[in-house]
Specification:
alpha+beta; globular
Length: 126
């Protein structure tokens, strides 16, 4: 079996002993990825901006794992409130503009910590 490799996004540490993700062989698993700005350490208060930063963080995560968003097979979105779907969808369509080439996606309402409005988890294959 292939050895597990930890993936860490600089500036996006969870603050607990949990990595941003892991890679085993050619399979990538993320922990929760939020819209926290990795330079300031803060979450933008605007939902659209927080979604943009979150998808930027996702792109960085995939790059560090050795892939791109094209390698994502499934994404789970955790929403503080259903009203944030529009913000997620705007950023989603920018990252995945081709309606015939998008990963599977599921969204669930969740009790998220602090000022996090939403977060994502992905599974990808290189």
């Amino acid at each position: 079996m292939a050895k597990r490799t930890v993936i860490e996004i600089p500036g996006l540490a969870h603050g607990v002993p949990i990595p941003n993700g892991a890679k085993i062989g050619n399979v990538i698993f993320s922990s929760a990825i939020s819209g926290k700005n990795t330079e300031t350490g803060k979450l933008p208060p605007d939902p659209d901006e927080q979604a943009e930063v979150m998808f930027h963080n996702l792109r960085k995560f995939m790059e560090l794992a050795g892939g791109t968003p094209e390698n994502i097979g499934k994404m789970t979105v955790f929403l503080r409130d259903e009203k944030y779907r529009d913000s997620i969808n705007k950023a989603w369509l920018k990252m995945f503009p081709d309606e015939h080439n998008r990963p599977a996606r599921h969204a669930v309402k969740a009790d998220l910590r602090g000022e996090v409005l939403f977060q994502i988890e992905v599974m990808a294959v290189l």
